[in-house]
Give the backbone structure.
Amino acid sequence: MPQDSSAPPAPLAPGASPALSETAAEDLVHGICFKTGPPRTLGAELEWLVLDAERPGATVPPDRLTAAHDAARALTLNSRLSIEPGGQLELSSAPAASLSGCVDGLQADLTAVRTALRARGLVLCGTGRDARRPLRRLLHSPRYDAMEIYFDRTGPAGRAMMRASASVQVCVDAGYEEPGPLGYGRRWRLAHLLGAVFVAAFANSPAHEGPYAGWRCSRQGIWRDIDSRRALAPPLDAEPRAGWTRHALDTEVMCLRSSDGGPWTAPRGLTFRDWLRSGGGAAGPDGTPGSPVLRAPTAEDLEYHLTTLFPPVRPRGHLEFRMIDAQPGDDGWLVPVAVVHALFDDPEAAEVAYRAAKALADAHGPCPAPRNPLWQAAARHGLADPELRTAAAACFRAAAQALPRLGASRHVQDAVGAFNERYALRGRCPADDDRRQLTGTGAH
């Protein structure tokens, strides 16, 4: 769940772990991607832009931003606090046994963080994409240096993702091993079909110029464009564990960690499977002369590689939903957390959601999310797309009925109801409020 998923990998210690065979690597990914059992826990990761309270459209100087981060880190919180490369602040909840436990813990921590930032004239803003320019990277580390170099090969989307995007990530258990409404196989497929509904309903990153002009969820366009494979879902016609294992091992290695202080560079085009097959030999095809010689990969290298994969739904034992934009307002974030939880963890709501998702399956097409027609329509049009609007109406209705059964507070129920009335029932999303720039609207 969130706190564990955001924890940094253990430091590299060459020679401390044995080399990994290809078979052992497949077994490792296969064993950790879906940990099955009764759905019991919930988590959320909330990313926020940090703005000047008086001049929200201005760029905050790095030293002032760093001081604010340090003040937030000094707080005693239930959540894990971390900083994204562009200075975005992230709170990752502790795994919670109930919706109320997850929401209450995050709300208390957000109150403390907001108080600390307001004392420094700063506020948190929930929006999926930072419209301020120029984009700057606040954090410098071997990981982020290597990540930027890697993404620069394919254009500007990688820098925009690192420096200017923010999301609400919701985490639910993988589900039962056995087939059924709460079985992991159906939940995996459901996540990728309903993921487009979540993109559309919670779109909050409108673009008015550039390659995503007119899109309600330009953040989704950025994620689509960062890499030819790294941000894609595996094919949904494959068995989930086998499909994800193949996808992970056949994706290019972003960086090779180094213990000597040098850059974390990786040979271009080297997949993790290539690295395994080289056995620490030449990195090029068939060990061609002139190819660099690599150390043999370890289990820790594979676990690190998995943290550099960014599909819309990431299996990390649990399911991590990564497609939802950061939401406006003090507690707009709790709406997607509550809706995802209801549709995946309440059996009756899950059945309604599955029927709604089946109606969208034909629009999904053979191309993996987020590059198929369904996800493209969600990012461009939001709930103005009639099929997505119909599915969203059914899902929000089912979620509203499920929340009392799940013990949701009246505050959570009212927040979901208000969102439904303002947006989903009208075929609208937060992006349709048309905030052309950061002018303070939505900053809290």
